[in-house]
Amino acid sequence: MIIQTTSSLSKRRISMAKDGTNRGGARPGAGRPKKRDDGKYEHVELTAEQIHELLDSPHISYVSRKSVSYTKAFKEHFWQRYCDGVDPKQIFEDAGLNTAILTRSRINGLLKTLRHQKEKGLSFTEGSEPQVDQPEKTYDFPKPPRRSNKSKLPVLSEADIAQMYNQVAYMSQEIEFLKKIILAGQEKK
């Protein structure tokens, strides 16, 4: 259900759920993966042909129907090129990996994993082996700012509104009083 609202600045479209509430949620086609009934996301499983194609690559150490593990050399190469400013998808294409099989979510998943390892100061491992060595050095990577949730406006009672109105009126009187003091001090000079 879509409701049209008009504001003095511009026209907005507000998306509403079927029950009339303005809450988001995983909607197919809205850029988010679809959730199953148990609340977990559906993952695209690889076919046998796709698995064989990926295993032919020297950059892949292990492939199952749901996961792909990369070699340590590829992880280091990927991280170096990513730090140089190259797009992750372009790095995969330059390495000869099929990005149609390795979807954007898998590519970004590798990037997220490598970023977490570098933030903790851990070195890369072969495949999906667990970390056994000590951290090298920790790095502080900037976090992107979170968008504010403008859909949750504060609920104010009549008493809260009246109190704020009185505060604004009082502050306005204080400002006017300070102006008069400043002007009186300037006139004496």
Label the overall shape.
Answer: elongated
Task: Sketch the topology as an H/E string, one letter per element.
Answer: EEHEEHHHH
Q: Would you report the number of β strands?
A: 4
C-alpha-based Rg, rounded: 28 Å
Q: Fraction of residues in helices?
A: 25-40%
Quickly count the helices.
5
Low-confidence stretches: 1-16
Q: Strand order within the widest sheet?
A: 1-2
First and last CA, distance: 68 Å
Report mean pLDDT, rounded to a whole number.
76
What proportion of the residues form beta strands (DSSP E)? 5-15%
Q: What does the main sheet amount to?
A: 2 strands, antiparallel
Query: Which structural class is indicated by helix and strand composition?
Result: mainly alpha
Care to describe what's here?
The chain has 189 residues and is mostly helical. The radius of gyration is 28 Å and the shape is elongated. 39% of the residues lie in helices and 9% in strands. The protein contains 5 helices and 4 strands; from the N terminus they run ββαββαααα. The protein has a domain at 69-123. It has a two-stranded antiparallel ribbon with strand order 1-2. A two-stranded antiparallel ribbon has the order 3-4. The longest helix is centred in the C-terminal third of the chain and has 31 residues, at 158-188.
